[in-house]
Amino acid sequence: MLRKRHFRKLPMPRHFVSAMLMRTKISELRGTTTMSAMNAFYAQSGGVTAVINTSACGVIQTARKYPKKIANVYAGRNGIIGALTEDMIDTNKESAATIAALMYTPGGAFGSARYKLKGIDENRAEYERLIEVFKAHDIGYFFYNGGNDSMDTALKVSQISKSMGFPVTCLGVPKTVDNDLPVTDNCPGFGSVAKYVAVSTQEAAMDVLSMAKTSTKVFVLEVMGRHAGWIAAAGGLAGKKPGDAPHIILFPEIPFQQRAFLKRVRECVEKYDYCVIVVSEGAAFANGKFLAEAGTRDAFGHAQLGGVAPVVANMVRENLGYKFHYAIADYLQRSARHIASDVDVKQAYAVGKAAVEFALRGKTAVMPVIKRVSDTPYRWKIESAALGRIANKEKMLPRRYITTDGFGITEAARRYLQPLIKGENYPPYINGLPKVAKLKNRPVKPKTGTQFVV
Amino acid sequence: MLRKRHFRKLPMPRHFVSAMLMRTKISELRGTTTMSAMNAFYAQSGGVTAVINTSACGVIQTARKYPKKIANVYAGRNGIIGALTEDMIDTNKESAATIAALMYTPGGAFGSARYKLKGIDENRAEYERLIEVFKAHDIGYFFYNGGNDSMDTALKVSQISKSMGFPVTCLGVPKTVDNDLPVTDNCPGFGSVAKYVAVSTQEAAMDVLSMAKTSTKVFVLEVMGRHAGWIAAAGGLAGKKPGDAPHIILFPEIPFQQRAFLKRVRECVEKYDYCVIVVSEGAAFANGKFLAEAGTRDAFGHAQLGGVAPVVANMVRENLGYKFHYAIADYLQRSARHIASDVDVKQAYAVGKAAVEFALRGKTAVMPVIKRVSDTPYRWKIESAALGRIANKEKMLPRRYITTDGFGITEAARRYLQPLIKGENYPPYINGLPKVAKLKNRPVKPKTGTQFVV
Predict the structure, then answer these.
(1) Which fold has domain B190-336+397-421?
(2) Rounded distance, CA A326 to CA A308, Å?
(3) pLDDT in tens, B88-111
(4) What topology does CATH give the domain B25-176+342-393+428-434?
(5) Domain boundaries, chain B
(6) Among A119, A411, B236, B417, which has the highest number of CB atoms less than 10 A from its own CB?
(7) What is the pLDDT of residues B380-389, one digit of tens each?
(8) A178 has catalytic annotation
(9) Which of A213, A415, A435, A441 has the highest number of chain B CBs within 10 A, making it the mutation to test binding with B?
(10) pTM for the whole structure
């Protein structure tokens, strides 16, 4: 009784009242009833994968479980550009069913971008603009779903936001078909492209073998992987015993030697009647020149590749005279949600979920990483790693994963790769085509009153 | 009583005894206990499909149900070449489980061949050799699984075998991804490649759209279809409403006009931010010249194509400057058993089964055809059609299936195509890869004592 009376009679301290008023005002602006919640900003970056939306699903579904802490997840339309131009998507406008459908929707649901923020000294204005937008929209969390360039951006935003007096909790969410992020055992997106490449190699090889007597003897499949041969290596899973396809894998890590290559092709055709070659788009000569350099460069300054398969195939025909065919999987491989790896889908979701959980536990400037607990049975868990350990670093295919002759994968590689393609995770279908999420993608009303041109 | 005594006491007629002896001898030779059964010869021809083995499964499983009529199914190793060279596979050596696994095994389980028998006047020796081998192995049934060239061969063998006094029951079993056989509503093999192309187009288009702001604006997918645009048309199923990808389909049936094409590409990019193009390998100029003619010809004398996608993509870049990517599906599309259409699998099995049943009902020189009973709900049945109506004829995509502007498919085309990609028919998986039949492919002991060089 005493305490109660005392409580009721004591005047409210002035600073408490003003804090209450301020919070009320913020919550009104937010259109929520939650008092202390901040908003989150989620953006997709770089080349999309079959499961990047699965990570988005993990982020948004998890955030929705903590409405007192995260009021809304705003998604960047076309990635980080959406933050710079204050063109954000209000994911609260999407139903639970639509968000759940992100689980099996390929592409980037909110748009992704090949846009790398420059160094702070070169373009401080971009970082200041980001913080301006974050401030205006009460964005206290930044989830950046991308590769090593993106982790660099997330790290810088974390540092700059602090120095600008508006500390933002910055979390990386790993994504890359290239599997080239360090620290994490593997990257979400890779398992599915690996499965696509292994399955396609197996299927096409059976086709070629059955026709080899009178038709195509050499088949070349071109796959992605600019600098790291992880995807090409995955093709090796199609073969289990000597003589099985693929007979030759051309890795970016192994300088291409025409004579040794042609010798092996001839040996294969003479011994097995056919030769299946998986070639990485990044296959290069000893001097570093790509077998097929298009000469154009993307926004990150990387050489844009494509068309190494015909180079290799024509080399075979000109020197050995064998009839050939080639396929270029290109975007089909990274968007092939229809043949996604179940392990990959589960991990893509887990890193999205973990990013939110880490953020709510006060962690910042970290990325959820996949830690392999055991190979057989395959077990994994999620841990966190500092962004500084990940940003701008590429993990190459270790030499011990490549056979001595440079044309195949070792048992160690198989042990690593095999679990990542395990399990099928089929999308639902309507009339023979995969069902996909249909998002409204309604814009968040701009608040800064200023424009920013990227 | 009287009848029984009479039976027991009557002497067996001489001709009956000799017939018994003869049949016993034949059955011993066959290694079977069936008295009046003949053997069957089954061969795969031309480019294989994701479901040609499903038809083989239908033939063999059905034949095994009638051991008193068909003692064994011999399969030609590398198609018809296996008959000419007396290199046949004893399918009775395969377990029921192995034959059942053909249901979901891509490629050609016994080997296929691009080998067309010439006209009788040009090469009578080949036909006489076939009959010699058939005679030596008691082969009374010939099941030829192929396209229109193969139906021509089956028809000729039926005629010549009769004129040579060893009439063979000849059945065609339809197969071609090109869907260009007449009479039948569609061809087994097409539904699955159509599903692959429609699914891949949808997936890749979502990828491209999500990146279009800063990256690729034009994506080109090259698909098969030498003279008929059925496969390219299937890509059109990915789009449902205006603005959906694919925005442009380039059919072999519509002469390519660069100006109209480039105009449409620009309109799409300006209106929808991106442009997805499905191009048939057979796309050609008004003068009949292929957009990408490799200059080489296959065993049937057809121009060997490949590489129209880069031609189209470079045309876009040079004239409009848009960033592009292209994929060449090549063999991946026709071997993609992992994304086979359920309707296709069922039909592929049904034509194999029906071929045996027709043969046992005394029909010859016919092919099971698929007759569409209704579009919605899709219903179909199997009928028989004379080989003469099918041999050497190509069914083109009707003009009414192509929109007036020549770049898309009409509602009539959708009504036709839609049911063919319906349903998923997934193979079983082991460790992340599709399980496939492992055949022994044991040879049948040669009996002619003569060699034949093809």
Answers:
(1) Rossmann fold (3.40.50)
(2) 10
(3) 999 999 999 999 999 999 999 999
(4) Rossmann fold (3.40.50)
(5) 25-176+342-393+428-434, 190-336+397-421
(6) B236
(7) 999 999 999 9
(8) yes
(9) A213
(10) 0.91
